[in-house]
Amino acid sequence: MPELMKDIRVPEYCCLGENQDVEINAWFGPSGTLTPTHYDPKHNFLCQVFGSKFVRLFPPSESQKLYPYEEGTMLFNTSQVDMEDSNAIMKFPDIATATYADILLTEGDMLYIPPKWWHMVKSLSPSFSVSFWFE
């Protein structure tokens, strides 16, 4: 949505990276929208414009417990575990011992997600977020 670009300012923190290129992504959706557990290769500032989101973060050290899809596949950076399935532990038992942090993002909040940190995001209400990815 190019029309929104004039209303979005890149946080100065993004300029602390190795280069000045910043990818901007806008996320708009209804309550219940779920992004499966995955990681991104770049630094990420997730900014909540309106609504609220639940975020579960896992450090890279927990990767094997998240049962990622095989390297070389399109989903190599995505977990096979459905975090909302109460029976997932039966199929993926190591998830029970994974270390994580739960975060609630509300309007005006900004969350830093380091490269290769696993995260699952769920909208708790209609919401709009902007991500800034940088190296």
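Second entry:
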Amino acid sequence: MYVSMGQIENALHMYKYSIDFARSALGPNDAHIPVLLSDMAFTYQSTGRLEEASIAVEEAVQLSAKNNPMVYPTILCNKATITMEKGELEDAQKLYAEAMRIAKKQSDYSAVQEISSNQVILLEKLAARQKEEN
């Protein structure tokens, strides 16, 4: 809600508060925490704060891998997107491939669709970079 109203700092404050609350009330391994961290990472990413986004999404990846595997491919896709925006295209490509492998294994077709869309963007960026180098 705050993000759509342009109140980014309020949104980040609420994410941090929600994460802290979930950790204290529900425990550090609660399945909601990786989702909140990933959403916070997206908020950082949308404002160009890619290092902060990377830190938040990395924690989300680690937690979702063990505490909420159903959202793991989507969160891994989010990490790949942040990595792509940082210009680390080869690393992003590996992350998308891993996310796709897991999403297909889980039959998570909405994640497969999201990952596929982002892979198209990545391929366009790779082609543009290759064109610049030649």
